[in-house]
Specification:
single chain; alpha/beta; eight-stranded mixed beta sheet; 37% helix; globular
Length: 224
Amino acid sequence: MRLLQGDCRELLPGIIKETERPVIVTDPPFNVGYHYDTYGDRMDETEYYGMLAGLLRLAPAVVIHYPEALHRLSIAAGQAPQRVVSWVYPSNTRRQHRDIAFYGVTPDFTRVRQPYRNPGDMRVRELARRTGGAALYDWWEVDQVKNVSKEKTAHPCQMPVEVMERVVGVLPDGVTVIDPFMGSGTTGVACVRHGVDFIGIELDPAYHRIAERRIGEESCLIGS
């Protein structure tokens, strides 16, 4: 477990070279003008997608973004994802879902189980008894982290741990997850829960401290 404070554009290439079986897993800044304390969220669009495409050239990657942005990223990177999942969050906001694209890595949805639909059906009950639940579908309904959520931190765009747990849970064994835009550390928390090696990079010192605290607390809980 390594948590680094700095610019991923400078640190990531060296980290990738020294890491066995790296997989980038990230929910990057969306370049839509969110207010972050240390960095701007309004890069030139060509520069922005060029930066994200550069990540895909370094290692297999899982990227969470709005669907239109993932199409643009795929074009910029010259590659299509192996799988795409929709994360849906019914809310009072204009946008109701994001997509999760797996580039260069094939997820195994049988590794994470969920309740079957129509649990009252006798055949479904028997199926659930034998299998322990259904393999993950490609449509995940998980609420966003809102100001009233227990896990909310000072980070303005915090990811739900449940979403990142599913992402990490369907990856192959033996990978090291690298999040170059670590933010509040949600990916790291998910990795601790799944026993997956994790390297996080965050530019903002305050967000880095939040990630250190959250991941440290989770490690203590798992170890106790």
